[in-house]
């Protein structure tokens, strides 16, 4: 099998369904139309800015370039992890008539292509729109095209080099854990750089000519961007040197990865690496102490899945940044609103992770009989427990760091327990109900948006309003020490009764089990 055929084979595996040539062509045309639409939107937005800002648009373009580069590095690391440790064909590669060189090159370019799409959607439209707005020289647009490609190649090179050294350092032992750690570090590191190192674009502005020559694809483009002018000869030289740099990086990544292949990287990454060195002990503990089969299945899936902790990184990190800047914990009623929104996010994310295993095995779950009521109860228990632990730990930490009074901390935890339980019960029941609605068995189709939207409108927003009222009462009682009048006391009782009524209503939610699924 030659390289082109194998690369085509890879893309068919990564697709959810087969596409005809007409559909494939339509996808390509749609992608270019998308870029054109984004360019047009950016153009009209730019024209709304005053001329003083438009005169400095090359500096803003420099910021977009730095942003794309930083995000691309993280995206490449995640894509590499997926290709080597989660790809559907990884076990077949051990016996398939495909040379290692073809596998290395195909995976290198698949990682690069994933990054290339990101650059084409963000950097290229921004620069092109600024050219049409009269803010950037046309030559900058021309060198942006090879630069976007260079960003993709550099990012893929970075990911391949990083994981190659990780493999050599671990010698293949605990490689899945080491690789997953790199993915987490890349995710956290990128967000931390963007948020805390606000002038991170200065990294690309070096004055050393030797560094500019060696790392041409990193440091030369920003120089032309800030100058906002370039000659035709410089465009040709820039493109040729960029191509030479990309070929060198490709050769280095290929050589390093090929060396790791000879040391067993392909065979190690192709095995069932979900069972890393700490999984067996946890599995033995669960088999001994957990009797519920569905609860056991979900927990085993979670501890073997790389999504378990990584899905919480971004919301917790961004929420922490908002808390540092705004300090919701000191704002009384706004902290109650903050808790309501945060809990909805954490519960939704956790549910999505739990349902992923059902999506991966939807045909199996549809064809075998099982007690769906048992699944319903175990899923609620696990969703409630995980969400409470994650959200509760985070909220408690915020309250302790900001020295929030114990009354507010206690109220926050009570609100947390109420809303986490209600959201778990409502979301799980609707997901299972929808998965059984049109079939004679349980088949989850991966759709959660409608369910979450319903919960937000019918449950989360009313609870948010009610707990905001209660938080306001508590704040005045603690800070002002006021005594309740008959009117105020009546309102407080009504609000408490409404909260309890919603809680009681959630406890009455059950699943109507179809006969086909009953054991």
UniProtKB/TrEMBL annotation:
Presence of keyword S-adenosyl-L-methionine: no
Keyword annotations from UniProtKB, A to Z: Membrane, Transmembrane, Transmembrane helix
Coiled-coil parts of chain: none
Sequence intervals crossing the membrane: 29-46, 58-77, 108-132, 138-166, 178-197, 235-261, 309-328, 334-354, 380-403, 409-432, 452-478, 484-504
Source superkingdom: Bacteria
NCBIfam families, per database record: elici_assc_perm (NF040842)
Listed name of the protein: Uncharacterized protein
